[in-house]
Amino acid sequence: MLKRLFVSFVRWIGYDLGISPNQVTIGRLLCFIPGWLIWYYRYELAARFSCPWQVMGVIAILVVGTVIAFDIVDGALARETGQVSDEGKILDPLVDKVITYSTLGLFLPYIVKPIFYLLLFLDICSTFMRGSQGRGANQFGKRKAFSQNVAKLFFGLAALFSLPVFNLVGNLLLGLAAVLASISVGMRAVPQKWWTGMQVAVPQLITACNVGCGLLSIWLAIHGSFALGALSILTAMLFDLGDGAVARKLGVSSNFGKHFDSVADMVSFGLAPAVLAMAVNDWRPLALVLGAGYIMATVVRLYDYGRSKDITPAGFFRGLPSPAAAWLVVASVLFPVPWLSMLVLIAAAVLMCLFVVNWIHFNQIIFSLTPLEIFFCFGLGLLLVALTRTPEVFAAGPIVIYALSPKWRKPHRV
């Protein structure tokens, strides 16, 4: 239904209003400027109109968000009306870059600088390559743009509601965007005959980053840096989502890659969360026992995943997936109550081995969240922050909703 409405909207713009794709692109830039200025001068405008500065911030986010949403309109309009042009292939990415980096520049004090400058460099390279090759964005470039746009939203919300944890999420998304941008530029820069032989290694490099994040989390937990250890596990989850998606897009797979992915999951979502929970509880004997039980449950979960693919409904997992279990444990560690993580170790271990219940794949639910699910994810997260006065516990909101999702997200039975 939404797709039909979108197509009708695009046709209305192109055929009824007679607006060209390049006019939409230029219009996006012109509409972006007042949105950017409203955010930049939000305090002065709030004083001028005698209202909270957050009101001006919300207006700016709505304006810029609408401009960003229209990014998909100009391309769809060009394809629908047959107005794809070389000028449009250059103009559209240039406007995108101006909007993206002008917006990110507003939040530069909260952005990890190496990630920002790496993304800027890769985007400049990509824009010149697109112009010289006469090709549009590939799938990795599109997903990179999506990650960047969501990151901007989180940075804006962090400023509006004084939630530093949203800055962490924004930086994680920018890190994912940098990985996707690297792959996108690599696909353009490397000759096709070379790329065909090299592409089998790309998913494995992403998996190696997953392992690295898991090992880093263990090291940080042992040295008492619990928040950074938790962040490392969440970063590993992004790489875990990426390696499979990249392998499917490239059409490559190998037995080594499958086994390597299982090892990465064991390290990042089995060992690392258990070590983190044990360290938070000062390595007490009970914490050691529960941590060992969680690790064993992860082993069982990964073993079952490898042998039950043929009998599991498409798009679903049997039992709670190990990354989700790790997220539950990580979220519990962030609470100011250490013993809570021991209870969550038990719950996560049980849910991983609850093979009669099916959980939808992460990569499917991310792009199919309903407005009600989004509301409850944010609502629960903000409620927990208000109750504990700890911004980091916002991370518990989305994963608790996901853990409960089998109640309404059920596989279609044939």
Automatic annotation (TrEMBL):
Swiss-Prot/TrEMBL keywords: Lipid biosynthesis, Lipid metabolism, Membrane, Phospholipid biosynthesis, Phospholipid metabolism, Transferase, Transmembrane, Transmembrane helix
InterPro entries recorded: CDP-alcohol_PTase-I, CDP-OH_P_trans, CDP-OH_PTrfase_TM_dom, CDP_ALCOHOL_P_TRANSF_CS
Parts of the chain that traverse the membrane: 20-41, 53-73, 107-129, 150-166, 202-222, 228-247, 286-303, 315-335, 341-360, 367-387
PROSITE patterns cross-referenced by the UniProt entry: CDP_ALCOHOL_P_TRANSF (PS00379)
Record-level GO cellular component terms: membrane
GO terms for MF: phosphotransferase activity, for other substituted phosphate groups
Record membrane topology: Multi-pass membrane protein
Coiled-coil regions listed in the entry: none
GO-annotated biological processes: phospholipid biosynthetic process
Subcellular localization: Membrane
Keyword set includes Membrane: yes
Protein name: CDP-diacylglycerol--serine O-phosphatidyltransferase
Organism: hydrothermal vent metagenome
